[in-house]
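Notebook, p. 212. Picked up where the previous page left off. The plan for this session was modest: take the two constructs that came back from the sequencing core last week, fold each one, and keep the raw output in the notebook itself so nobody has to go hunting through shared drives later. Recording the first one now, exactly as returned: residue sequence, then the structure token string.
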Amino acid sequence: MKEEPRTVVLATLDHGDVILPEPAWCVGHADHRPDSYRVDLCHTGSEHQLTHDGELLWTASLGQAPCASRPQGRTLGVYVAQDGYARTLDPSACTTSPRPSMRTQTTSANSPPS
């Protein structure tokens, strides 16, 4: 028996309830506001952190805004944010790790940033 795709219903100010396909990587919409506009709806994945000596350098997560006004916003992308850290780093000392609540594996970054 084929399983139906997962969907989510999100209230919007301009289009009422909007039904969207929900990607498996999406962590949900707990912070959704019903006064949002349809173009602002987005799917967000788990955050992954790049640290050095226990200090947060970067945070990355998957993101997609299926109703975005610009076509490039509708495609799956990686959202990357930099914390306020600025130093020269030894690339072998950098590791990526998910937030403690995430269920992914920790991996090493073996190549220097480009």
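Okay, moving on. Second construct, recorded in the same format:
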Amino acid sequence: MHPPLFTIIIPCYNSASYVNKAIESVKSQTNNAEIIVVDDGSTDNLFEVLPIDIIYIKKENGGVSSARNLGIEKAKGQYLIFLDSDDEYQNGLFEHLKTIISNHKSEFISWGFDIHKNNNIIRKVNDNLHGEMNGKEYLKMVLTKSIYQSVCTVCIKSEIVKKHLRFSEQHNYAEDTNFLIETLLHVKSVYYINKSYFNYIMRDDSAMSVKYDLSRLTVFDLYEKTRVKINDTSVLPYFDSFVCMCLTHIIILRIKDGSFKGDLADGLVSKIYLYKRMKLVKLNKKISIALIFKILSSAISTIHK
């Protein structure tokens, strides 16, 4: 018996009220996929509401990364796709994916997405990019934020993930971004679809809505571990600049929301050494490295007045 073309991994925690919408967005499009729902210690009636033709795995609560990793271990599909329980795919995605896999044999396929809040589309992320490209060049675009990438808008060759990759279970912030960066270090061919095929649903209790605290700074420790794995000297300056851009962004946001103080401020300032690594690469059309330093310096000076 041939393995399914796709495995869709859906981590769940108390999502009985909406997970079936995510599942149906897959089932309505293809019968060549296995759907794995990993129940991360839910206390609601999740199991009772699930359709019988999906794979259900129950585990003790350990976080979304541990749920995704368990799904990776159990997956039998040729390609892996990660879907959050409160999001959904738009019609046409899986037919488009099958065509690309048949014609291009791409190892990593990505597509655009729509961001929804209160039943309204508040942003469409559809980058002006289409077609096949080298994995390293695509990684550079991700690192310079020339393109916006979500872990739920990718289809990855299973053997690459199973052999080389797992989500970090010790981190609960930006671990999905780090996973994508490490994935692209192993990928030779990428295909980008310039079309929205994914609905990201913003909820008040989503990870993006959680208050920023000191524990989230551990993501920079995770980035340090990833940096060691980068053997391509042409990629390293882009990665270092990406990390510094992340630090700058966090500091400016924390200043704006008034949380840049106490242990959090000390923790952020302790990461300033990262700027010594940053090389002059093109980061963004609207902002230069010199301007980043100017914004950062003036912001910190304002706080300490």
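Notes on construct two before I forget. Confidence is low (pLDDT under 50) at residues 280-288.
Flagging for discussion at group meeting.
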